[in-house]
Amino acid sequence: MYDVEQIRDDFPILSRSIHDKPLVYLDNGASAQKPQLVIDAIIRAYSEEYANVHRGLHYLSNVATEKFEAVRSVIAQFIGAESSDEIVLNSGTTAGINMIAYSWAMPRLGPGDEIVLSVMEHHANIVPWHFVRERQGVSLKWIEIDEQGDLDPQQVIDAVGERTRLVAVTHMSNVLGTVVDVKAITAGVHAKGVPILIDGSQAAVHMPIDVSDIGCDFYAITGHKLYGPSGSGAMYVRRDRMNEMQPFHGGGDMIKEVHKDEVIYNDPPMKFEAGTPGIVETIGFGAALKYLMGIGMESIAAYEGTLRDYAVQRLNELNWLELQGQSLSKGGIFSFTIDGAAHAHDISTILDKRGIAVRAGHHCAGPLMDHLGLAASCRASLGLYNTVQEIDALVDGLKLAYDLLT
Looking at residue 172, what DSSP letter applies? Predict the structure, then answer.
């Protein structure tokens, strides 16, 4: 049985009050809270086991290195990678996608080449490709979504032409909650000889991930959304793609030898990890993934599915609330506005006074907001510790906001 109250007890921040109201944390899409197990792992790493990794022969360095490197295998298990050698550790999805842009795309792409994107992408999966566009003369081809907020896999596949060199799509929209059929897209674009990068920042939080089954070339995850520390994350890179990449960060650890007239790079994945990494952050990330696997991603997905359905029911009772995205494959992310002149920031402020944390703004998704014709919206995003009572509190808070603002 999924015991949400027991899970909530694992997260110390959930017991506090905001403005003398119990905290209702519905901003998980931006960053999730941390269980005590992760906090303890971070404290222990700093207070008892800290040293730099890979470089030392002393006891503490060996302990830190062993714990840091063990996280690769944890990540590989969590996302279904065949080998821990396909896991590049980094500070999160933004760093990971920039690595692919600089290490794989820029040396290979030139004027007339294309990168296919969807309008649902987070800026982390847009801006690096604009860098490639600006510096290499590459064109960006955009795929629209339908009225329900769905991305048609066949439309993406059909957009792949002779000059398409990469497809980059989200697995789950951070604004609409739409879950994209990335396996179908991968099969279709691979049949045309084109690789695919998937932004799994949101999807990996809410459902089991198997990159080997998906068959993708690159898959990004970020630690702070997965109940781990900020400054942690990983990029899955299929082995054959890793052999095509050039390093773009130079420094310690990513080399075997350095001479005045020669540098010999380290083997992948360390070839792409220059300098002292986020040692403690990565150790904390590993602890978070073990925590999630201990609960079971299937169980988390089933519980959050029930919670999502309840939220859809309650929010649809508010006939003045405009929900963006009504996909049947929707996850527990709800972006909304209120009829009339109510600004998203005002709605968020009223909810905050009732202890309810939501996000307000463009959600780092400019092309999608342009597509929706919105400057800003509010977003409530669910996590494994949220409850039906918190959904009720959100609905009551929205009723108050409607009364005050319209």
Answer: B
User: Does 55 or 27 have the greater pLDDT score?
Assistant: 27
Report the C-alpha gap between 175 and 181 in whole angstroms.
17
Catalytic residue among 364, 376, 393, 394: 364
Cα–Cα distance, 295 to 7 (Å, whole number): 9
Give CA–CA dist 232/335, Å, rounded. Answer: 26
Please list, residue by residue across 102-125, b when 16 or more beta carbons sit within 10 angstroms of its beta carbon and e when fewer do: bbbbbeebeeebbbbbbbbbbbbb
Active site residue 216: no
Q: How far is CA 375 from CA 322, 367, 389, in A?
A: 14, 11, 30
Annotate 105-157 with DSSP letters as a single string.
ITTT--TT-EEEEETT--GGGTHHHHHHHHHH-PEEEEE---TTS---HHHHH
pLDDT greater than 90 at residue 340: no
- Write out pLDDT tens, residues 249-296: 999 999 999 999 999 999 999 999 999 999 999 999 999 999 999 999
Q: Above 90 in pLDDT, residue 313?
A: yes
**What dihedral angle (degrees, nearest 10) is formed by the CA atoms of 301, 33, 317, 18?**
160
Q: b/e for 240-277, b at 16 or more Cβ within 10 A? A: ebbeebebbbeeebbbeeeeeeeeebbebbbbbbbeeb
Distance CA 83, CA 142 (A): 33
131 close to 183: Cβ distance less than 8 angstroms: no
- What DSSP element (H or E) covers 182? helix 182-191
Query: What is the gyration radius of the CA atoms in the chain, in angstroms?
Result: 22
Q: Torsions phi, psi of 30, nearest 5?
A: -85, -50
Q: Could you read off the pLDDT of 209-246 as tens digits, one per residue? A: 999 999 999 999 999 999 999 999 999 999 999 999 99
The whole model's pTM is what?
0.97
